[in-house]
Write a structure and sequence with these properties.
This protein has 250 residues and is an alpha+beta fold. The protein has helices at 21-24, 32-38, 52-62, 81-96, 113-130, 137-148, 167-186, 201-208, and strands at residues 75-79, 155-161, 190-194, 215-223. The structure holds flavin mononucleotide.
Amino acid sequence: MAEHANASPFGEHESLDPTQERSRAIDPTMSIVDAIYARRSVRGYLDKEIPAEVLNRVFEVAQMSPSNCNVQPWKVYVASGPLKDRLRAQMVENTVNRVEPNPDYPYRGTFEGEYRQRQVDCAVALYNNMGIARDDKEGRLRAIVRNFEFFDAPYIAFLGMNPAFGTTVALDVGMYAQSLMLAMVAFGIYSCPMGTMRNYPDMVRDAFGIEDETKILFGLSFGYEDTSVPANKTRTEREKISTSVVFRSN
Ligand SMILES: Cc1cc2nc3c(=O)[nH]c(=O)nc-3n(C[C@H](O)[C@H](O)[C@H](O)COP(=O)(O)O)c2cc1C
């Protein structure tokens, strides 16, 4: 499927000059604080295309993210249309058949104490909204499979970098992802960051004809929210800042 590597489903891309007047002309006026509070993980999307100009613009904005020595290590592969459908079908098939994931980057996912509690609270909030009881094994599998259906998002992005850069540079990719999610919110686009998208990186490499050293860190489903999807009623909470922030002057 390498022939799709250079075929952009979004038409011709604008040059990446962040000061470009034409791009800026379409910018919304939402404040950064409002965007941060409005962002949340959305797990149900409308089958609605994002105008190419808007799509290009949100990625232009995210490109302004900081990085170690400005190396801009993020590599981002966005699938839509038939390519997205193919990836979705392949990933669902693997998941249902319990094909062992082979992530490029390891993920322990085992949290303890207060971290475990937050992990459980988050799952409970989501499963409650999805109507899945604790002992509903089928329901739980269905919830997992929804990830690999990309929550019906018309777009799925895979974010990665060269692992030779090391863990600290991976932080840059995380910062990029937050910039991207916030820029999307300003344009009325919602997303879900997805660690599950690291499960089958060979499929991503094949789909995009990736031949360099890029390894997949995580994914991001995005599009316009379907507000009728019960999972989208999920809201998560945050601890007081004193649980994570220490201010000191001497
Ligand atoms: C790196 C990362 C990976 C995540 N992976 C998944 C995932 O695979 N599936 C999912 O449904 N949510 C995933 N999430 C979403 C988190 O569950 C969510 O951000 C958290 O519960 C806080 O909720 P909020 O995003 O609505 O504020 C992920 C979030 C991050 C930052």
